[in-house]
Amino acid sequence: MGRMRENPRYNVISMRISDEEREHLENIMEKTHMSISDIMREAMDYFAANYDQLDLQHKAA
């Protein structure tokens, strides 16, 4: 039987990215030793934490 996790993840989200974006992710993976999933989770956390500021910047442009 598999290990029980405190916060199991059941949802899968997929997206299409360019070769350039994939290379960028692979570079980040090499530098940080993180998985793509962990990088994307961190990016979502950053976006959520800074959304209000980012939203104001887009409205000003």
How many strands, which pairing sense, and closed or not: the largest β-sheet? none
Helical fraction equals: 55-70%
Distance between the termini: 53 Å
Q: How big a fraction of the residues is strand?
A: under 5%
Strand elements, count: 0
Mean pLDDT: 88
General form: extended
Total number of helices: 2
What is the succession of H and E elements?
HH
- Rounded to the nearest angstrom, the radius of gyration is 15 Å
- Give the low-pLDDT segments: none
Q: Which structural class should the secondary elements be placed in?
A: mainly alpha
Explained architecture:
- The protein is mainly α.
- The protein has a domain of 26 residues.
- 64% of the residues lie in helices and 0% in strands.
- It contains 2 helices and no strands.
- The relative contact order is 0.07.
- The mean pLDDT is 88.
Notable traits:
single chain; 61 residues; mainly alpha
Quick structural overview:
The chain is mainly alpha-helical and 61 residues long.
